[in-house]
Amino acid sequence: KNIFGNVRNFITFQLSTSVAALTLVALSTMLGLPQPLNAMQVLWITQSLGVEPVDPEVMKQPPRRRDADIITRQLVTRVFTAASFIVAGTMAIYVSEMQDGEVTARDTSMTFTTFVCFDMFNALTCRSGTRSVFEFGLFTNTAFNFAVAGSLLGQLGVIYVPFLQTVFQTEALGLFDIVKILVLSSSVLWVDEGCKWWSARHKEATTTEDIQLMNV
Fold it and tell me: CA-CA distance, 16 to 24, in Å (whole number)?
């Protein structure tokens, strides 16, 4: 059960990231804008989601059918919802930074870092398809935490280490820039948290209604 759940979470994360990256490129092309991400940055964005430890709530669920689909309507909805917020937020930063019609090192740094931070928050919320990240804890998966910490340290290196700035075509960002990016990119987490809360509430209300009907 836990392996099946982890596969679904992994697919949700990878698909939402891939859909967002491809949409960003396609949208820029259709609007006649320079590409916001170069090849090195796209390769850097591709990351993996760590395997989650056994979830007690998953183990309480009844056995699934042998022909149960991995990709469901709920999964697809989560993928496109997350991808939409990632694209909208990243494009907003890109367009607002690119005032002269040319892509500068600062434009690239802001856009690239925004996408990566969206990716990190998305990975965090994709750890579970139903439970809040604050319910199962931020630090319960050591491997995941090391992966995120490594990615964030790597991103800081990309925008602050001179050698990496040359490779990735970036420049140093200010503290206000970082705070702005974190606030914006966290939206993908809060939206998914809200969807989980609404789904859980609806399920609880349906269960209560069914019990009342049985008692009538």
Answer: 12
